[in-house]
Amino acid sequence: MHRRSLLKGTALVAGTSFSGSPTLAQPARSRTLRFVPQAALTALDPIVQNATISTTHGFCVFDTLYATDARLIPRPQMAAGHEVSADGMLWTIRLREGLHFHDGTPVLSRDCVYSLKRWCARDLFGAMLARVVAEWGTPDDRTLTIRLTRAFPALLYALAKPAGIPPFIMPERLARTDPARPVPEMIGSGPWKFVASEFNPGSFVAYARNEAYRPRDEPAEGASGGKRVHFDRLEWHIIPDGATAGAALQRGEVDWVEYPLPDLLPVLERDRNLRTQVYDPVGFLGVVRFNHLHPPFDNVEVRRAVRDCISQPDHMAAVAAPGDWRECHALFPCTLAGVTEFPAAPRDFARARAAIRAAGAEGAKVVVINPTDFAAVAPQGRLAADVLRQLGFQVDLQEMDWAALLSRRNSREDANRGGWSIYPTNFPAASIANPAVNSGIRGDGPTAWFGWPTDPATEASIERWLYAPDAAAQAQAFAEVQRSAWEHVGFAPSGLFVLKTGFRADLSGVLQGPNPYLWNLRRA
C-alpha cells in the first residue's frame, strides 16, 4: 500500500508513457479503441479456461445462440427464435440469416451442435443439460433441434449464460477439438477478429473490426442486442500496475481502464476529461476458495473455522471504495431475490484454534496463491494469509501474476508438491445467480470447480431446484441448496461489492454487466 501511495503521487503527474507500444498517428488513434483489461490474457480458448478475462476475449471473437439482457433474461442472439413442444421435450432453434465466421464460411446448425457438445463437456450447467439430451439434431443448415429425455425448463438460460463458461459458437472443425485442449485458432462469428500475429501474452492483444458482422436490430443491453462496432481496431494494453494505468487514462494514452484502483478513483473523478460508472450494478461476491482434496481443508470443521474468522469489512475496504460494498454472509449475491444470509458467527480466534486443534490440523502447512496484478483480488489473499497465521497455520504466501495463478490452480497435488490450499477471487454476480451456475457450491468431486469438493447433499438439492414443478417448490429447493452448501463450506464469502470502471469522457456507450462488452462504443 505504501508503494501504491508513492505511485499515486508520481505516475499521475509524470509524463512518461505507459508502454513501449508504437505511437499511432492521430487519425489511426481516433479509429482505435484502447482498453486496459483487469488482468493479462494468456489462455485464449474461453471454453477451456474458466476465467473472466478469457470470457471477455470470448465475447469479442465469438457469439452465442442466446444472450442475457441487463436483468439476466435470455434473449435470442444468433438464434432467430425457437419453438418448444407442448411436453417441453423438443426444442427447435432457427438461426438468423447471414451469419458467417471470420474465415468467410457460413454458420451452420452443425457448427452449433458440435460447439454445444464441447461446451457441455466443460461447463457444470452444460453437463446437467447433456445428461437429459437424447439427441442433437440438424434437420437443415439453419435449424438445430434438442430432443430431451425430460423437460429442462432452464435450457434457454443455459444457452445464454453470460459468465463462467458461456456456450460460444465456433466452426465445427474447431469445436471437434478435445474439450480438454485449446482450439488451435481463434475463429468465431463475433464482432471482432483476433489478430494472432500481434498477440503478445501478458502484454498486448489486438482485434480488427469484423466488417461482415450483422448485428441484431435491438439496442445493445448486457450481452444481448445489436453488437455494433464503431472502431476499426481494438487494442488491449496490459498494465499490471494500477497507478500507471490510471496515469495512462488521464493522459489519453488509453480510452478505458476496466478496474481503476479504488484509492485512485477520487483523483480520476475530479478530472473533467474522464468518467466513471458502476461496472456491474448486481456486483461481485468476494471469495476465499478452499482446496478440498488435501489437508487441512479436506476437513469441514477446519474450513468452517477459517470462514468464521474472515473479516468481511477488512476485505471489502481493501478492494472497494467506501459506500460501494456491504457484508454478505451468503453463497449467492445478497442483492438477489430468495438469497439466505446466514448470521455471522462472532469472530473468535480462540474457539477457531480449538476447533482446528481438535481436527488435528494445528500447525499444518497452508499454501496461499495470490495474484499481485489483480487489484480487486490481491489484498484479499494477503488478508486471508494473515488470518491463517493467527489461527496457527504454517503459511506460505506465494504471490504471482494472475496468469500464473490460473495455471497453478489446476494442480491437484498437495501443498508440499507444488499444489495450493487457498486462493482468493471474485464471482461476478451473474456467474452465481442460481444454483446451476454457481460453481463455488457445486460438489461434483473430480469435475467440480477448482478445489474439487464432493458434496452429494447439495448436488441433490440442486437437482430438485432445477426440476421443481412450480415456483413454490423451486423456492423451497433453493433454500435447501443454500443451507446445505453453507454447512459444507465450499468457500468463504468475503463480502459483496461493486466496482467502478473508468474511461475517457469522449467515449460513450459503455455497457454494464459481468464482463466488459467491447461494442456499442463511440468516440465523440
Explain what you see.
The protein has 524 residues and is α+β, with helices and mostly antiparallel strands. The protein has 16 helices and 21 strands. It has helices at 2-10, 26-30, 52-61, 109-120, 124-130, 155-160, 172-175, 242-250, 265-269, 300-307, 312-319, 349-358, 378-390, 402-408, 456-466, 471-488, and strands at 32-36, 66-68, 74-76, 79-84, 90-95, 133-140, 143-148, 192-194, 204-209, 233-237, 256-257, 274-278, 284-290, 325-326, 365-371, 394-400, 422-428, 491-497, 500-504, 507-508, 522-523. α4 crosses α5, α10 (300-307) runs antiparallel to α12 and α15 packs antiparallel against α16 (471-488). The longest helix is centred in the last third of the chain and has 18 residues, at 471-488. The two termini are 36 Å apart. Residues 1-16 and 19-25 have low confidence and may be disordered.
Give the topology.
Layout: H1 2-10, H2 26-30, E1 32-36, H3 52-61, E2 66-68, E3 74-76, E4 79-84, E5 90-95, H4 109-120, H5 124-130, E6 133-140, E7 143-148, H6 155-160, H7 172-175, E8 192-194, E9 204-209, E10 233-237, H8 242-250, E11 256-257, H9 265-269, E12 274-278, E13 284-290, H10 300-307, H11 312-319, E14 325-326, H12 349-358, E15 365-371, H13 378-390, E16 394-400, H14 402-408, E17 422-428, H15 456-466, H16 471-488, E18 491-497, E19 500-504, E20 507-508, E21 522-523
Parallel strand pairs: 1-10, 1-11, 15-16
Antiparallel strand pairs: 2-3, 4-5, 5-7, 6-7, 8-9, 9-10, 11-19, 12-19, 13-17, 13-18, 14-18, 20-21
Distance between the termini: 36 Å
Structural class: alpha+beta
The strand count comes to 21
Alpha carbon gyration radius: 23 Å
Report the biggest beta sheet as strand number plus sense, adding barrel if it closes: 7 strands, mixed
- What's the average pLDDT? 92
Classify the beta-strand content into a percent band.
15-25%
Residue stretches low in confidence (pLDDT < 50, at least 5 long) are 1-16, 19-25
The helical percent reads 25-40%
Which of globular, elongated, flat, extended, rod-shaped describes the shape? globular
> Looking across the biggest beta sheet, what order are the strands in?
8-9-10-1-11-19-12
Q: Tally the helices.
A: 16
